[in-house]
Amino acid sequence: MQWEIVIGLEIHAQLSTQSKIFSGASTAYGAQPNTQACGVDIALPGVLPVLNYGAVERAIKFGLAIGAKINSPSVFARKNYFYPDLPKGYQISQFELPVVQGGSIKIQVGNIEKAVRLTRAHLEEDAGKSLHEDFHGMSGIDLNRAGTPLLEIVSEPDLRSSAEAAAYAKALHTLVRWIGICDGNMQEGSFRCDANVSVRPRGTEKLGTRCEIKNLNSFRFLEKAIDFEARRQIEILEDGGSIRQETRLYDANRDETRTMRSKEEAHDYRYFPDPDLLPLSIPKEWIEQVKAMLPELPEARRNRYIEDYGLSSYDASVLTATRETADYFENTVKQLPAQAKLCANWIMGEVSGRLNKENIEISQCPVSPVQLAGLLARISDDTISGKSAKDVFDSMWQNEYGGSADAIIAAKGLKQISDDNEIEKLIDEVLAANPQQVADYRSGKEKAFNSLVGQVMKATKGKANPAQVNTILKKKLLE
Amino acid sequence: MTLSVDDVKRVANLARIEINEDESKQVLAQLSGVFSLIEQMQAVDTSNIVPMSHAQDMIQRLREDVVTESDQHILFQSIAPQVEAGLYLVPKVIE
């Protein structure tokens, strides 16, 4: 039987506010335990939550970026469960009337573009952290993270493969950073994924029983966990068994998922509207104000790069992976409008390779877009060869000669020899010195040609224009 | 809707309230009374009324996104039963 995989994702994006969602404690990462947990966060008796304007504004921004409905009023609810890192005994979340409802985001897998629908995105507070290392048989609780604002983004079950799920998660990851609502740091847990996975016979409508996989802290793990889980479910069904609805944990070391809790043990959260918080009203004027703050979105930029600069859809996607990369590209191409493809190739090749190697972000790139454009201009007007360009780039990276391409080319004598007479003279010398290879070539050994080109390039220290060398050499050998 | 003693015990367990057999029966009678009151109210036609999410007809006031709280963990932890390395210690919990 042919099986179809059905996936929906729940993504928790930590909102990049200075203070917590319901208190004035700091959200800075990495502080000493419990130094950023105030009376509200540790749930001292008598405290009251007061909602953070910045958290709501970020949620509205997200809603507008995916074309969703912004609910007003929007209501906060208590989600009740017992766990020591949740001091109140409930998490303030949203149930009915989330801030953001509906919307969609476009993803690309291979050459196929697809719109993934979102169910909702709601505001909630994060819990603290439990440390289970040995404290004399006890657990340690750090409440610094308690009360950190989260946007939980829930998709419809529109994804049909692990590749689509990863593309969707990446598209959201790009978007939340692009609009500046989340730093997207997956190591620090600022962007976390859970996946709901089920399978059904291809061609049928009815959804199979789903399992939720928790704790997927990288895009690679997300794909691997879904692949494993789908295989597991298909095997059970093909053996005549049935799937139990449960929550499973992905174990990256063993590349498998295993039961965390079954539906029977599942929590009964007893949601109800939080009497400590009044309904949130979001007037039209506020929405308009946020709309005016939104930058040009990744999808719009991607389309513009394809239309205005003639880039391939792949190049346009790579260049719009982050807003910083897109800005870098745009500032480069502004200097060299006719050479968009050359700019794209260099940014995706040399520049990003070097950034990866040194493990720095493009915003910290020592070569500015204007400097890079200066170098690319010299490649496109044939002043230097592609090989020399890499040397110039390296010098620019070290900030030699003020990082100016022209100054480096002049100082290092990298100007390409493009004078026909000069090249001819050099070729004559090489031919005279290598009669054997000339004879070999003339007797039909093509390989000898490359060897002669190599000799010429060596004689010019790589500065001769290779295309010219090829043409002149061929002409000479035919004489 | 009729409630059973088992329902009462389950809800008590979820809310971490310890009650014995006699209390369960007592609570059952009280809760059943509440349910019959709700039944009475459900007779009213509310189809044109927007559900209320709060008893007061007011909207939520927001605070500016600024850090206003300073570190008071030493004070807070002075009333905690057990503390180590800045952490609150609790009986071991692994989900």
How many distinct beta strands of chain A?
16
Percent helix of chain B, as a range, is 25-40%
Number of domains of chain A: 3
- Terminal Cα separation of chain B, in Å? 35 Å
Largest sheet of chain B: 2 strands, antiparallel
Oligomeric state: heterodimer
Strand order of the largest sheet of chain B: 2-3
Structural class call of chain A reads: alpha+beta
Work out the strand percent of chain A: 15-25%
Task: Summarize the entry for a quick read.
The complex is a heterodimer of chains A (479) and B (95). With 479 residues, chain A is of the alpha+beta class.
Write the layout of secondary structure elements.
The complex is a heterodimer of chains A (479) and B (95).
Chain A: E1 3-14, E2 51-52, H1 53-65, E3 69-70, E4 77-80, E5 90-93, E6 100-101, E7 104-109, E8 112-125, E9 129-135, E10 138-142, E11 149-155, H2 162-178, E12 191-201, E13 211-216, H3 219-238, E14 246-251, E15 256-262, E16 272-273, H4 284-293, H5 298-309, H6 313-319, H7 323-333, H8 340-358, H9 369-380, H10 386-397, H11 405-412, H12 420-433, H13 435-442, H14 447-459, H15 466-478
Parallel strand pairs in A: 13-14
Antiparallel strand pairs in A: 1-11, 1-12, 3-6, 4-5, 4-16, 6-8, 7-8, 8-11, 9-10, 12-13, 14-15
Chain B: H1 5-14, H2 21-42, E1 62-63, H3 73-77, E2 83-84, E3 87-91
Antiparallel strand pairs in B: 2-3
Describe it for me?
Chain A has helices spanning 53-65, 162-178, 219-238, 284-293, 298-309, 313-319, 323-333, 340-358, 369-380, 386-397, 405-412, 420-433, 435-442, 447-459, 466-478; strands at 3-14, 51-52, 69-70, 77-80, 90-93, 100-101, 104-109, 112-125, 129-135, 138-142, 149-155, 191-201, 211-216, 246-251, 256-262, 272-273. With 479 residues, chain A is an alpha+beta fold. Chain A has three domains: 3-286, no CATH class; 296-412, no CATH class; 420-478, Arc Repressor Mutant, subunit A (Orthogonal Bundle), CATH 1.10.10.410. In chain A, the strands form three sheets. In chain A, strands 1, 3, 6, 7, 8, 11, 12, 13, 14 and 15 form a ten-stranded mixed sheet that branches. In chain A, a hairpin with a 2-residue loop joins β7 and β8. In chain A, α12 (420-433) packs across α14 (447-459), α12 packs across α15 (466-478) and α13 (435-442) packs antiparallel against α14. Chain B has helices at residues 5-14, 21-42, 73-77; strands at residues 62-63, 83-84, 87-91. Chain B starts with a helix and ends with a strand. The interface between A and B is large, with 55 and 36 residues.
